[in-house]
Amino acid sequence: MRPLRYSINVSLDGCIDHLAMVPNEQTYRHVIANFERSDAMLLGRVTYEMMEVGWRQPAAESARPEWVESFGRVIDAIPKHVVSSTLDHVDWNATLVRGDLATAVNALKQQSGKGVLLGGVTLPLALADLGLIDEYEFMVHPRVVGHGPRLLDGLSRYLDLELVEQIDLGSGIFVVRYVPRR
Question: For residue 56, which phi and psi values (nearest 5 degrees)?
Answer without folding.
Answer: -60, 135
